[in-house]
Write a structure and sequence with these properties.
With 122 residues, the protein is an all-beta fold. The protein has no helices and ten strands.
């Protein structure tokens, strides 16, 4: 297995809590998300029609309905959902899972903070 290489993508101060921004790592564009102090990375490309997934303005939650709650709508995943700005497909940032289509998942990148630097492993 190939060792992933770390790339510094900015200072911690550039990624305030509950924000995200798109960075370039080589030829890749990666959305770096700070959700309550936990960092995540997703490719800035939606599998639906190659839209700029991580350029959605904010992360939000979404409505879900579950059998164990008699299918009543509940707001869930607060701050963990990004919606592609082209067609609105929603993705769960920590897992890369598409909420509408369970067979679609985007890759995730490991993001670490060391010595005040935010690094993504590619």
């Amino acid at each position: 297995m190939t060792q992933r290489k770390e790339h510094v993508v900015g200072n911690l101060s550039e990624f305030p809590d509950n924000s995200h921004k798109v960075v370039k790592v080589g030829r890749r564009e990666i959305g770096i998300f700070n959700i309550g102090g936990e960092f995540y990375g997703l490719p800035n490309i939606c599998p639906h029609q190659t839209g700029p997934l991580c350029e959605g303005k904010t992360t939000t939650g979404t409505l879900v309905a579950r059998k164990d709650n008699d299918w009543r709508f509940e707001w869930d995943y607060e701050g963990e959902i990004v919606a592609c700005p082209w067609h609105g497909l929603e993705y769960h940032v920590p897992t890369g899972r598409c909420l509408a289509f369970s067979n679609i998942k985007v890759r995730t990148y490991e993001v670490v903070v060391e010595d005040g630097k935010v690094k993504v492993r590619v």
